[in-house]
Amino acid sequence: MAEKADLFPHDSSLELLLPSERDEKMSAKLQRLIAYAYGNAPGFKQRMDGAGIKAGDIKGLSDLQKIPVLRKDDLIRLQKEMPPFGGYLAVPLGEIDHIYQSPGPIYDPQRRMKQGTLPPDLGKGQIAVNTWSYHVTPAGLLIDRMLRAMGFTVFPAGTGNTDLQVQIMRELKVSYFVGTPSFLAAIIKRAEETGWDIKKDFNLKYAQVFGEMGGDPLRKMFAEKYGITCVGGDNYMTADIGPIASSCEKNSGMHVNTDVIVEIVDPSTGRDLPAGEVGEVVVTPFDEVYPLVRFGTGDLSTLVTETCACGRTTPRLPKIMGRSGDAVRVRAMFVHPRQSDEVVSKFREITRYQITVTRPADRDEMLLQVELASEPADRGAWEESLRKEFQNACKVRFDTLEVLRAGSIPPDGKRIIDRRVY
Question: Fewest CB within 10 A of the end CB: N or C in the chain?
Answer without folding.
Answer: N
